[in-house]
Design a protein that fits this description.
- The protein is α/β, with parallel strands linked by helices.
- The chain is built from 16 helices and 20 strands.
- Strand 13 and strand 14 form a beta hairpin.
- Helix 1 packs parallel to helix 14 and helix 9 packs antiparallel against helix 10.
- Bound molecules: 3-acetylpyridine adenine dinucleotide.
- 3-acetylpyridine adenine dinucleotide binds next to helix 5.
- The site of 3-acetylpyridine adenine dinucleotide has 26 residues, from helix 5.
């Protein structure tokens, strides 16, 4: 057994937030454990063909260093995974972060020692670290969800998950392919698989709303303009609910005539700004009728693009509001179904039953396949924390405490788990905001908290169940004011059979979230217990 090492801070995860945390905490004795063999988190693991960010890259980039944001150039408006991975590696080198990162070394077990107010952290490679603080930058979408269909071992071909795509890539040319899942990932993947496959079967349980991404080569005038105004733009981003500078309407749908509505929706559809469609009217996420106007607009688009009417009909989402699941952003997804080598299979009416020796069997038929790609999403938001065996005060385990769904004051700290702070934890804005910016903001908040605890010679910070209750009320009140709760998705843990969670995302917008966090700290650390 290795001897214990001592650090001030352990960071879990070397994704975008974890890397920035390493930089922010550089004056402390800090170490970062990362499960992957490289840095980048989401952008390390999700290297499936077509993986691309859906926020413009001038926005989806670090803001903490002026030279970095001036010197880096993105080749496309919405960067693809290889470019994001190149960027994050550049950041790791430029800010000399690598010597404090231990790769391929996931944290497996953590125990809080109440006598010393220290965490004992144990890793996959047998490291034992004793530290004062743990900052969990474990990611909201980092544990792949693979439904437990039987027969996996029988299948003679290859089964891949989009979130664990082989680093060396894989040649899919001429293969009989099956793709399961039609969320954001599946929608990016399908057009590329279709180009390579002999035949592609796409197994769909729930159709998705999607709009064209508007990706194109970087417009250098746009880049110059951003670089000249970066600090002002970044400030403005922080004042917008989604932390992205899209144009938000303040006018309700009912204020417009039918032809004005169609004109506005058409403008948004062709705007080359992903997500613009959801901001056309002020009441899209609060008024079902308005929502239906927009949903119907997208259904008409699907029917206009997809030539076979039965396929088009199956691709039209009809039983949940648009935006209630994260809107997907595509590069020719619906057009893919006009190819002769693509077949859509409805696995809602005839669910997937098992893998077989030669492919996949649904309740209705067997499909012969060489490769099956599961684009089945994630054990989102809580999965990365509950897969670590975390013991807090009195030996209570986090996975037990969260058995019926996560609790956390401000989405940051869990009562009974002192000195442990989460970035992108449950009950934070997550994908309802721009995750890179929110991650940076939260790391700064945690940095300020730790600096102040050290300055004032505290040994422990915790929160209370009462404070967790206040935050739960805030989160629930907000979700009840919107239409998000009317879809089954990873936002409410309903993407995985049997998972309990309640509504796990903060939909009150980033400015309100940030204000409530700042007010709690300024108000004598309201909701926290320092000792
Ligand atoms: O995962 P998902 P994702 N039988 O959960 C299906 C971010 N992201 O990886 O809808 C059959 O959305 C499931 O069906 P259903 C983004 O925030 C961003 O696609 O549950 N099918 C669904 O179709 C996004 O929201 C980017 O009925 C099953 C699919 O698998 C989040 O990641 C790109 C099934 C999973 O969709 C997650 O997206 C990619 C079963 N048993 C992802 N279980 C960009 O930046 C699941 N499915 C662009």
């Amino acid at each position: 057994m290795k001897t214990a090492e001592y650090f001030d801070i352990v960071i879990i995860g070397a994704g975008f937030s974890g890397l920035y945390a390493l930089h922010r905490f550089r004056d402390y004795d800090v170490v970062c454990f990362e499960a992957g063999a490289g840095v980048g988190g989401t952008w390390y693991w999700n290297r499936y063909p077509g993986a691309r960010v859906d926020i413009p890259s001038m926005e989806y980039s670090y803001s903490f260093n002026e030279d970095l944001q001036q010197e880096w150039s993105w080749p496309e408006m919405f960067s693809a995974q290889p470019e994001l991975e190149r960027y994050v590696n550049h950041v790791a080198d430029r800010f000399e972060l690598r010597d404090r990162i231990r790769l391929s070394n996931a944290v497996k077990h953590m125990r809080f020692d109440e006598g010393t107010d220290r965490w004992h952290v144990h890793t996959a490679k047998g490291d034992h670290v004793i530290c004062k603080y743990v900052v969990a930058a474990t990611g909201a979408l980092s544990v792949p969800n693979a439904p437990p269909w039987p027969g996996r071992e029988k299948f003679k071909g290859e089964i891949l998950h989009t979130a664990a795509w082989p680093e060396e890539g894989i040649d899919l040319t001429g293969k009989r392919m099956g793709q399961i899942g039609t969320g954001s990932t599946g929608i990016q993947l399908a057009p590329i698989l279709a180009e390579q496959a002999e035949h592609l079967h796409i197994f769909q349980r729930t159709p998705a709303f999607s709009m064209p991404s508007g990706n194109r080569p970087m417009d250098f005038e746009h880049e110059r303009e951003w670089k000249e105004n970066y600090s002002e733009r970044r400030q403005k981003m922080m004042q917008t609910p989604g932390v992205s500078l899209l144009e938000r309407s303040s006018v309700a749908c009912s204020e417009y005539t039918e032809s004005q509505r169609q004109e506005l929706l058409e403008e948004a559809w062709t705007s080359q700004s992903a997500f613009q469609l959801l901001l056309t009217f002020s009441d899209i996420m609060t008024n079902r009728e308005t929502n239906e106007v927009v949903a119907d607009f997208v259904r008409q688009k699907i029917r206009a693009i997809v030539k076979d009417p039965a396929t088009a009909d199956l691709l039209c989402p009809k039983d949940y509001p648009i935006g209630a699941k994260r809107l997907c952003i595509d590069n020719g997804y619906f057009q893919t179904f006009n190819r002769p080598n693509v077949t859509l299979v409805d696995v809602k009416s005839a669910p997937i039953a098992e893998f077989t020796e030669n492919g996949l069997r649904t309740a209705e038929a067997e499909y012969e396949l060489d490769v099956i790609v599961t684009a089945t999403g994630f054990d989102a938001i809580t999965g990365a924390m509950t897969q670590i065996d975390i013991e807090g005060v009195g030996g209570r385990k986090l996975m037990d405490k969260w058995a019926d769904g996560p609790t956390a004051w401000l989405g940051l700290m869990v009562a009974g788990f002192p000195n442990l702070m989460m970035i992108h934890g449950p009950l934070t804005p997550g994908a309802q905001a721009q995750m890179l910016m929110v991650g940076e903001w939260q790391v700064n908040l945690v940095g300020d908290i730790i600096d102040s605890l050290e300055r004032d010679h505290y040994s422990r910070i915790d929160t209370s169940e009462e404070a967790e209750g206040w935050w739960a009320e805030e989160v629930n009140m907000l979700s009840h004011n919107t239409l998000h709760r009317f879809a089954n998705s990873w936002y409410n843990a309903k993407n995985i059979e049997g998972k309990k969670g309640g509504f796990m995302i903060y939909v009150g917008g980033f400015p309100r979230f940030a204000r409530l966090n700042n007010e709690a700290i300024a108000d004598g650390f309201r909701g926290f217990i320092r000792s």
